[in-house]
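From the shared-data thread, chain only:
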Amino acid sequence: MAQHDGSHHHSHDHQSDARLLEYREVESETLPTYWSDVLDWVGRAAEDNSPQRILDVGAGTGYASIALAKRFPRAEVISLDVDAAALALVRTKAGKALVADRVVTLEADLDEVWPPDLARIDLTWASMSLHHLADPHRVLGALHATTAPGGLLAVAEAGDDLRLLPDDLGVGRPGLESRCLAAHAAELARTLPTLGTDWAPRVREAGFEVLDERTFPLDEDPPVLPATARYAELRLERARSGLAEQLDQEDLDTLDTLLDPGSPLYLGRRTDFTVHGSRIVTLATRSSS
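Structure, as tokens:
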């Protein structure tokens, strides 16, 4: 339920992989205002450098890669991800957006090896991806070495938890989403200790000069339907499967009701969503001196 998109994974369950791919795709469709605002901010910061090579770390299904390719029509955009299926979707979307000649996909697990052919990157965008790494400091150091003098790094990570559901759902005890978020946060604290940490000091320690840090709201009013409904459903599916031992039976029964297409309270038919949360974006540069 937290803003954790599962970008770094090694699943061999094809159904789970397909669900994860849909989750990553529908998340971007749920937050169009955020994506427009944050990429416009990053794009304006990079305009003076006229970036020729852009790297999207943990590119997912390519929302940022495509947007940056459109913004900088002379730039090559490298979409890097561990998920081959996601990168296949990036290539399809790049073709539809008429930028396939400038969007290059690169399948790589940065925990295992730094791709040797990455060099002189002018702009790196890393959204909700660095916290998945076993050693973010090593990867940030490699990004610094790869960044051209005067080049930029933008790191987007979790701020306030994204909330989609009203407190009272008309079934079960009020506050279901809060309890799911708390349970998931406890699990992530154990498995992903860098999630939610302050990234500006980490970026600075890797050798970058931090230029700015900004909090972007994840607010959509009104919510984007039906994408938000589907995103909420996928989030609750993940909560139901991953938090069964942390939630009590009443909450599990409530989740079953909300996820049942035959129920009058089925999440897919609801419209009473609220989209609120935030992400913190750190903008940094490699000194040209």
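The first strand starts at residue 53 and ends at 57.
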